[in-house]
Design goal:
Number of strands: 13
CATH superfamily of the largest domain: Aldolase class I
CATH architecture of the largest domain: Alpha-Beta Barrel
Mean pLDDT: 90
Number of helices: 15
Distance between the termini: 50 Å
Strand order of the largest sheet: 9-8-7-6-5-4-10-11-12
Largest sheet: 9 strands, mixed
Helix content: 25-40%
Number of domains: 2
Order of helices and strands: EEEHHHEHEHEHEHHEHEHEEEHHHHHE
CATH class of the largest domain: Alpha Beta
């Protein structure tokens, strides 16, 4: 008999009974009391009376990794690591986040950028050098771009000029995204989005009108909420066929407003391709914004669960833990770069404008001038090189957490950074919330005469989502990144 997997979580739901979850295989079982007693014995390493053992049940536990040899689990993780490296070091996709300027017309107090007063706009010379940089990446078969800043709509002509060149280089170029505060997103710009291949836009609101205007004001202190809503109205009622995501930056000072804003926006744009999600506010060491305002991981988990229980707000990816084993982003992608307005190259959106975090420049003959920092990002943040992560029961769904935070904590010794996933402290809370949604769905399906879920006739059943938890990553940067 194989031993108890270190990736197992066995828990009791007060309302629904006993459950066993394995983070490596992504399998969860609902158990009756006799089978719960069996797995308790297996977990505790106690000798179990063979007359009490359901052989089919034991075979099922082994088949799904709930009972597993440590060496087998190590090899399976090795396979996942190979998949992660293959995705991160792929040269098929050239993924650029381009900041035409770092200047911004807003003065948000929590912004990680300290250079909004820098009025530099990407010059023709830098644009030409950027095109040369792209051409130099001969192996790249696909180009994806996210427009960022500062505020990219301040330099809309740069977006237009560069897009024209991108289409010449990559005739299939068609999936750009843009992160904007939307204050300048007027009808004229909206009418250009299709030609500019911008299919995804992220806009930020920070609460209802009064709160938002206190947190996301113009640089002269002026209000912004009403105009942003008006511009979103224009966008959603236009012929543009892309998707709009509204991010609501949430911390202790405005978390109580999220549910009302979420409901209000979805009602206002019912039937439109618009979604709303909350984002954690994170600040850096020495930042003027009060660190005490941010929600820690356990507080964030409670906020997420309470949002469902009290207001029926389901997280975008649901409550069931998704695979985080690849944990790929711009920072870990070999051909992923952030481009500053003067041509500086960076590996994280939050590094832009900080010279000591630049890895090179599009103006240099050898683009990469700081290979040490590049190595710290790509190798130094690899959770498979971290003994603590390798022993963690949630590594398969965490994947090591935020790469930038890992770098700052593990490579540069910055204190007080929690780079782990909220699942580390609140896994059972998320699983219980999933069980509740699963049970509710089964009841609804039964009432509506739809296909019933798996039976508990054997004393156990699988209740995880049908979607596979560990899927191959082709392009590690397929979706528009979620930033502040």
């Amino acid at each position: 008999m194989k031993p108890w997997s270190r990736y197992n979580t066995l828990f009791q739901s007060e309302q629904y009974g006993w459950f066993l979850y394995n983070a490596l295989s992504g399998v969860m079982l609902e158990l009756d009391e006799p089978h719960y007693r069996i797995v308790c014995s297996l977990r505790d390493g106690k000798q179990t009376d063979t007359t009490d053992i359901d052989k089919v049940f034991m075979e099922m536990l082994e088949k799904n990794g709930l009972l597993a040899e440590r060496e087998d689990e190590r090899v399976k993780l090795m396979g996942f690591r190979y998949g992660r490296n293959a995705a991160c070091f792929s040269t098929a996709y050239l993924d650029l986040t381009i900041c035409p300027t770092l200047s911004c017309n807003f003065a948000c107090p929590y912004c990680f950028e300290h250079c909004q007063n820098d009025g530099t706009i990407m010059s023709d010379e830098t644009m030409s050098a950027l095109i040369g940089f792209i051409r130099n990446h001969h192996e790249a078969k696909h180009l994806t771009v996210s427009w960022y800043g500062g505020e990219p709509t301040l330099c809309f002509d740069v977006i237009e000029k560069l897009t024209e060149k991108f289409i010449e280089l990559y005739p299939d170029y068609d999936n750009a995204g843009m992160v904007t505060n939307a204050y300048l997103l007027d009808q004229e710009k909206i009418d250009r989005l299709k030609d500019l291949k911008i299919i995804a836009i992220q806009i930020t609101l920070d609460g209802r009108e009064a709160t938002h205007n206190q947190r996301r004001m113009l640089r002269n202190g002026g209000a912004t909420y009403e105009r942003i809503l008006r511009n979103i109205d224009l966008l959603m009622n236009s012929s543009w066929e892309g998707s709009c995501t509204v991010r609501v930056n949430v911390d202790k000072t405005n978390q109580q407003e999220y549910a009302a804003l979420h409901k209000e926006l979805l009602k206002r744009y019912e039937g439109k391709n618009l979604s709303v999600y909350p984002g954690q506010v994170n600040t850096f060491q020495g930042h003027n914004y009060d660190h005490q305002c941010g929600l820690c991981n356990s507080e964030w988990a409670a906020f997420t669960r309470d949002g469902y229980i009290k207001d029926g707000i389901m997280p975008r990816d649901g409550f069931y833990p998704q695979s985080g084993i690849h944990n790929a982003c711009v920072a870990t992608s070999h051909y992923g770069y952030i481009i500053g307005p003067e041509g500086g190259l960076y590996k994280c959106w939050e590094d832009v404008g900080k010279e000591h975090l630049s890895i090179g420049s599009v103006h240099e003959e050898e683009f990469i001038t700081n290979p040490e920092l590049l190595a710290r990002y790509s190798i130094g943040t690899d959770p498979f090189n971290d003994a603590e992560c390798m022993e963690c029961a949630i590594l398969p769904v965490c994947g090591g957490g935020c790469v930038s935070k890992r770098l700052r904590s593990r490579q540069f010794g910055e204190q007080g950074i929690d780079y782990c996933s909220p699942l580390k402290e609140s896994l059972t809370d998320y699983l219980e919330a999933y069980v509740e949604t699963w049970q509710t769905r089964q009841i609804c399906d039964t009432v509506l005469g739809k296909t019933a879920g798996p039976s508990m006739e054997k004393g156990y059943r699988m209740i995880q989502p049908e979607k596979k938890q560990h899927e191959a990553v082709k392009n590690p940067l397929e979706t528009l990144a979620e930033q502040q």
